[in-house]
Write a structure and sequence with these properties.
This protein is rod-shaped. It is an all-alpha fold and 96 residues long. The chain is built from three helices and no strands. It starts with a helix and ends with a helix.
Length: 96
């Protein structure tokens, strides 16, 4: 579960970095056109928060099944202990 959270954060951070530097490059290329510069600056300011937020919200974390897994392991352990007691009983009854 922790690795899923870490991956979610990493992907969101990567998206933020790509949008940030991509926007800077796009604004740099359009610096000659003052009308486009204003439009791209506004779009970039919105996108720098909207796109990483969208990525963070759309990545779903897996459901936590730790209780079910723990109960399955406990059931298997109880079954093994039962078999061990049965085997010990058989061995104790053997003549020496």
């Amino acid at each position: 579960m922790q690795s899923a959270r870490s991956g979610r954060r990493s992907l969101t951070l990567l998206t933020f970095v790509v949008v940030f530097f991509g926007g800077l490059m796009l604004i740099g290329f359009t610096s000659e056109h003052s009308k486009l510069l204003g439009v791209f600056s506004i779009v970039w300011c919105i996108a720098i928060f909207a796109i990483p937020t969208f990525v963070f919200k759309t990545i779903k974390l897996p459901k936590d099944n730790s209780r079910k897994i723990a109960s399955d392991i406990d059931a298997r352990a109880a079954k093994v202990e039962e078999h061990l007691r049965a085997n010990r009983k058989i061995l104790d009854e053997l003549p020496v």
